[in-house]
Design goal:
The chain is mainly beta. It is 5% helix and 41% strand. The chain folds into four domains: 133 residues, Immunoglobulin-like (Sandwich), CATH 2.60.40; 90 residues, no CATH class; 82 residues, Immunoglobulin-like; 88 residues, Sandwich (Immunoglobulin-like), CATH 2.60.40. It has two helices and 35 strands. Strands 3, 4, 6, 9 and 10 form a five-stranded antiparallel β-sheet that branches. A hairpin with a 5-residue loop joins strand 3 and strand 4. It is elongated and about 155 Å long. 31% of the residues are buried. The N terminus is likely disordered.
Amino acid sequence: MKNRIIYMAGPIGWVWALALLLCHTLAFADVPTPPTTLPITCDYATAPANVVLTSTPVAASVTASYLLVDMTSGRIVSVNPATASFSNTPAGVYYAVAAYTSTTLVNATVGKLVSEVSDATGCVMWSQSVGIRVCSTTCDATTAPTSFTFTASTPPASATTTYVLINLATNTIAAISSTPTFSGVAAGDYEAMAVYTPGSFTAGVGASLYAYLNNITVNACGTGAVVSNGLFFKVCASVPPTIAITSPANTTTTSTNPPISGTATPLASVTVNAPGGQQCITTASAAGSWTCTSLTFTVGSQTVTAVASNTAGVSTTATTTFTVVSSCANPSVGGLVAFLGTLPLCNTTNAGNVTLSGNTGAVVKWQTSTDGGTTFTDITSTATGLSFTNAANNQQYRAVVNNGVGCANANSTPVTITTSAANCTVNCLVTPGVITK
């Protein structure tokens, strides 16, 4: 949830008290005509922008003021008495218009509604308006729908406060709230603001706030409205990243360590999961390619998944299945390990030898287990026989055999050493003493 702040353009409590008096002393001029077409494309790609337009000269007897007006509400956001240029313009939709008078403009100030602008003669002339869209590349929310909260200045006691959310794609009211919070906001560009009216706010969702406020100001003398500055809010849809595994394809391979590679959304995080709890985490390149080379596989069918994730936490999964086949002409055979002697052995002190037979391939190492064969610990030895000392009861020994390049390792059948206290030798040799007379 986002928390943003908006402010009213100066005190407004006195507006309601003086409204009737001003109604009889101030003549409202014709209002400018906003563009008939809402600007859709970005005139300025980043915000804030320095808006620069071209204007034509006017007669020396006429004074021109250039106004930048928020198209959502009709609120004046910038005034330039010299040229049609406006600096530090935030993201939003606007129109620029020139006001011409032979006297002095009234209410042509930031924060006023453009419909309030007049002069002493009531003869303000307006130029043709020009629509402008200033875009933003910054996402205020990266998932949709979302919610956000903003803070507005304290309204006068006599005013009704209504919070309005404008969809800038249509320039219509998207949501109305009695609190400065909007929820369920879909992806898009929005402007939020507070509207202060002396009576009920009667515009509905889908209506034009600009037209509503203009109607109040011009036609409902003594019941004018004040609108806060607008807050731009960009909700970006979370587009799932793409992911594909291109190698190995759904076929066979003789490699037990084939590179797993593919394509994904550039710079997406890629996690590859393989059998046995193996995992490889990498990042797709700027060109969208990725590769994992740390995974190993046994002979048989294998399934691998690759998960691509973006910074918004949205992920996409791809899966491939391939088969590892042996390239070995004569596969490894583990054979049988046997104890050379009689079991059980003494349980306190023992020693012995085990030997391998019936194997195809060379011994690459020996292994032993003391938990019934659940886990094995490597023993460095490539001989076909192994000597041991002080074996525990039910301790197992096995050999690991390989028959050359392309062949998978094969484990021998293990031998289990048993021990017993009954098989411990008792030393009965006692040196006799001597009896003398």
